[in-house]
Amino acid sequence: MSSSSIKTPNVITCRAAVGYGAGEALVIEEVEVSPPQPMEIRIKVVFTSLCRSDITAWSQAPIFPRIFGHEASGIVESVGEGVTEFEEGDHVLTLFTGECMTCRHCTSGKSNMCQVLGLERKGVMHSDQKTRFSIKGKPIYHYCAVSSFSEYTVVHSGCALKVSSLAPLDKICLLSCGVSAGLGAAWKVANITEGSTVVIFGLGTVGLSVAQGAKQRGASRIIGVDINSEKIEKARAFGITEFVNPHDCNEPVQQVIKQMTDGGADYSFECIGDTGMVTTALQSCCDGWGLTVTLGVPKVNPEISSHYALFLSGRTLRGSLFGGWRPKSDLHSLVDMYMRKEIQIDEFITHNLPFEDINKAFDLMIEGKCLRCVIHMPT
Fold it and tell me: Where's the Enoyl reductase (ER) domain (predicted)?
């Protein structure tokens, strides 16, 4: 093929939901999306779901204007120089944390904390510290290296996963974050054993995914803790065997859990994003081998404070980012499991909304009326 016949991507004008300030309603605007630069791909977003992390960032992020969204699926529209893994028309999942395959962490086999494509916090691309979005020449910042609340987005090729065209994009988009995070916390981080007792604080998508993973590992008791008692029936479908509402307790919930479990659970999971609850989860574990895994992103007070005796007695606290999955190396297995009907995804989707109703999706999650809203982007 001659160089003159190679297709050169142009700037695309499309619609995106832009956040202009903390807690302010998103505004659907016409934005310009630059062509992908070396080792980047431009994606036509087909479906994106709303994650609690989007809400947290939107309510307090210091960087605006910004396009949020990170849990998404789409189709590759164009590729940048040097990209050999993807081509136009490929179906992909977006990845909020990438995998370069060459750094110390990626080659260790012990970590998914890529030193090159790890969590992006500055609102710009990893490669050149610039944005690919703009409105009339003014930059619009990225979120979590994805920014899926846009008809088109640009990501580093290490922040996308090619998937089978047979996999339904409106369902597997949930594997971009929440469902995978919960399953991985149960299987990879905690490595739950058969017959064990598990307590889960927070029964959103992540917490219920932990429950699903614990059930598959043969946990004997899976205790769900949440202040919303309306979640009981939904929770049972994912494996929750008992439910505790702290508001209904006459003593601290950790004492209730210890009484229920003869001294504490084998495993506890903090899926709320409350550092105070991390201590509560630790106190709900048993001496000797109790393991607490924290998955939530705190909205305030990011520091954890716990008495040293909790650890001296043998308890362990572990953090979990994306369930410990190496996103490009491991996530294929979850897509395959879903296609074989071995894991539940569809049941997490409580609402399907058009892009124009994205602020309604925010309202539903803030009000605790949904697990996952899948947002259909215009075709």
Answer: 21-375
